[in-house]
From TrEMBL:
Keywords carried by this UniProt record: 4Fe-4S, Iron, Iron-sulfur, Metal-binding
Gene3D superfamilies, alphabetized: 3.30.70.20
Protein name per Swiss-Prot or TrEMBL: YfhL family 4Fe-4S dicluster ferredoxin
4Fe-4S ferredoxin-type domain boundaries: 1-29, 31-64
A family per Pfam: Fer4_7
């Protein structure tokens, strides 16, 4: 699953620099995650770093983007091939 930042985000700037895929960006009001770039850190870390640094726990798995481990790893390899990371 890709991750999603909830409306409770306070724009503390902790998550964006931690994202190895550059999937986190400032949206209109809060940080957002590009689901096409989010691999939940698969290919880099054991756990999503944005979740571990979020002080308010407002980053969740996106129920709209259900992806298993293999799919996320495949996305990671495609991003590496396309040199988007």
């Amino acid at each position: 699953m890709a991750l999603k930042i909830l409306k409770g985000c306070i724009n503390c700037d902790m998550c964006e620099p931690e994202c190895p895929n550059k999937a986190i960006y400032m949206g209109d009001k809060i940080y957002e995650i590009n689901p096409d770039l989010c691999t939940e850190c698969i290919g880099f870390y054991d756990n999503p770093t944005c979740i571990s640094v979020c002080p308010l726990d407002v980053i969740i798995t996106d129920p709209e983007r259900v992806e298993d481990h293999d799919t996320l790893y495949e996305k990671f390899t495609e991003l590496v091939k396309a040199d988007k990371i």
